[in-house]
Amino acid sequence: MADLLAAHLGDVGVGLRRGNLMHEIETTRPDLDFLEVAPENWLRLGGAVKRRFEALLEHYPLYTHGLSLSIGGPAPLDWAFIDAIKQFIDRYQPVLYSEHLSFCSDNAHLYDLMPIPFTEAAVNHVVDRIQQVQDRLGQRLVLENVSYYTAPTAELTELEFITAILARADCDLLLDVNNVYVNSVNHQYDARAFINALPPARVRYVHVAGHWQIEPDLIIDTHGAPVCDPVWDLLAHTYAHVGAVPTLLERDFDIPPLGELMGEVAHIRALAARARAQTETPQGSLA
After folding, report:
1. Judging by beta carbons within 10 Å of its beta carbon (0-12, 13-18, 19+), is residue 63 exposed, middle or buried?
2. Where do the structural domains in the chain lie, given as residue ranges?
3. How many CB atoms lie within 10 A of CB 127?
4. Hey, which bits of 147-241 come out as E strands?
5. What pLDDT score was predicted for residue 287?
6. Which of 46, 219, 228, 280 gives a 20 to 30 Å CA spacing to 6?
């Protein structure tokens, strides 16, 4: 996977959503490096929708970001679902398969991404499940740090929890920069220091998004607004630490016309290009 992703440094994409956005992408063929989908939303494709989806994949590489793995959940892993994901991966050959470091089910689906308690027991539980899924899929998982609003049973910090799982499960990280910013405000920690403490070699993919700031010290993670200046600044800092890894502009609600999204895509590209130029400039150069 490392060699494959190295070929995609600096790439920027958007999430493929059925409806107006999909139609705009089909008709205008925008300058995007990839499209991302939640595979469970496309597993049972048929007819015209399947043909449209596969036609787009002739023009754009595919990234996948799942919603239903529930890697931290108390219920047994859903092997029928995991095998269906593997079939989707085998058929469409996405650049990567990512998921959330969270849980979304117990005896039923919760229809939300719930944070995992920051405890040693939870680390052990999650590491075991990640290793089982990686063995079944035949590839490493790329898991996203999630936003959370309370952690009353925490034995570890969020950072200690994430880095322990990355090391012990030998998996990779989808670094959601907006989530780091949201959590840093809500839980009063230094977002840049958090980024700096992450192992760069584990960061394979980046998400950036907007949010809803209710109070100076309270943010709700919505993915329903343009990216704000502090998150742009944190993205630039992230690139300086981990490199210009592939990046998704994430917008799930109040999706604007494609042209507006492409303006943010252009800004991501500019930040990535600046980071790459700084990395490639020899030390001591006046450039």
Report:
1. buried
2. 2-280
3. 19
4. 172-176, 203-209, 212-215, 218-220
5. 40
6. 228
CA 65 to chain centre: 7
Residue 26's SS3 state is: helix
CATH domain 2-280 topology? TIM Barrel (3.20.20)
Give the global pTM.
0.92
Nearest-angstrom CA–CA distance, 121 and 126: 9
- Other residues' Cβ atoms within 10 Å of the Cβ of residue 218: 12
As a whole number of angstroms, the distance between CA 116 and CA 158 comes to 10
Residue given tokens 């996948």 in the structure block: 64
40, 102, 150, 156 from 120: Cα distances, Å: 30, 15, 17, 8
Q: Is the model's pLDDT at 5 over the cut of 90? A: no
- CA torsion angle 6 274 177 64 (round to 10): -30
Query: What is the identity of the amino acid at 47?
Result: G
